[in-house]
Amino acid sequence: MKKKGIKIIISLILFLIAIIFEFDNIWFNNVLYVLSYLLVGLGILRKALRNILRGKVFDENFLMSVATLGAFCIGEFSEAVAVMLFYRVGEFFQNYAVNKSRKSISSLMDIRPDYANLYIDGNLKKVNPDEVKIDDIIVVKPGEKIPLDGNVIEGNSSLDTKALTGETIPIDIKAGSEVLSGCINLNGLIKIKVTKQFGESTVSKILNLVENASSKKSKSEDFITKFARYYTPIVVIIAVIIALGVPLITNGIFSIWVYRSLSFLVVSCPCALVISIPLSFFCGIGGASKMGILIKGSNYLETLSKVDTIVFDKTGTLTRGVFEVQKIESVDISKEELLKYAAFAENYSSHPIAIAIKTTYDYEIDESKIKNVKEISGYGIKAEINKHTVLVGNEKLMDENNIEFKKCYDSGTILYVSIDGKYKGYILIADEIKDDAKQTIEQLKQNNIKKTVMLTGDRKDVGLSVAKKLEIDAVYTDLLPQDKVTKVEELLNNKKGDSKVAFVGDGINDAPVLALSDIGFAMGGLGSDSAIEAADIVIMTDELKKIVSVIKLSSKTMKIVKENIIFAITVKVVVLVLAALGISTMWEAVFADVGVSVIAILNALRVLRVNKKLQIK
Asked: Global pTM?
């Protein structure tokens, strides 16, 4: 950029000397023009020649080369230099704009760790993160990036997670805390036991996602690419007809019509569209990254603007997913014994409900007494505990095994327990609704979302209670994982026109539905491999309100894309007609090309301004 800027400045100085002083020695004047031209135009001429040899004739390099060399041929030295000089000025602004938009995303690239401090026999060895293995111990000093995912085994500190989550408030960690690669250790020395190799770590997956985001183009970008492919040869043919055909038919002066033809070629360059449209989407992705939202490609940003139905998973998405045991009712057994059997059965499960039961039990579990554990998706768990067959799950599990039981109608998640085929009671577990859930639903309805839907495996009364509090339009309960897929398929099949359906899940058990929907949102997906792989948009924190922010950002991006398309095409068509009629000169042609490009690019950069209107407090 710096080298290009110096060349442009020197070229501009030579051009101004020639045009202001107009030396009596015309040859000297023309030499100044040629030197000025070569400084900025030689690279364009080389690109045009190289592309022609490769069979790619009709591009902006070709148009600029033909237009400027043609102007030299008819003696319009000053205008030839002006066209190339201002084209390069416009290109310089384009590069600046692209670099500026990249910075929003490249801040994420700063999370890439350069090294890891491997702890071996009391000594530290600085190694490449790729060399660290699972269960190795690493040390992270204050100010260093955490290079790999793991669990803290020693030390206390605070972590700066801004690059990953967009949040400015540090989080406190201590022994037992899970930490993610890419965060910055702020104050204390910590030892971490590595749980994932670098290639599978959070930082590696995010970097891969960001680097590949630009490969998935939107329909608008594809349209512009195809448009330029056909548009450029057509205008070249029209320019040839203006230069040669019209004077032959009308007995006109060739030099006049050649000049009009060259002006026509300058105007016709589709730079404003070819650069500003992809840049608008790139800025949109950059703006989202500022808010801690990863969008996998511009096609998803465009699709998001058409979403009118949003489907939510309940547990962990609309609710906190932090369960607590509220009530224990036992039959012919003590409550303590009932809880013990349930905790033993749930020992190997990492589900939030299982964690709630084990946390409440709060005793050491003798795993030698647990055998033949079988997790039945959508039903519960079957296990052999101390030679007793234990079932822990919902009423469907009891019905499936012909267990007579007394239904509980309390609001919450009910786990029924049977031992050796006999009902022994139930455990009531409750989950809290997230603080920002109601506000998010309200804001979505104010931003063109016509229908909100909630899917849950919970009982009907629990689902209806949550849906009523949040004012969700439709709720489906008692669903197995495959039932959620079926419901989303029904919504996709019944959608009207070009409308789209989005699904929001916690990214752990919702991978099939995330992949199936038009747009899949993974909430709090940083620690979830399936979230990053299956979702189209990853919200790196657990904040529902960011869904509203990214929908607003999508609408803003598409508005700017449409503005740029309409503005660029309108100005170019008007000036093309004026150039063909000889009303506009090559100077107006330069504005119609470079000026329109710069204005469109500056307009695209507005997407990067992620202001208070987009970020919901």
From this structure: 0.68
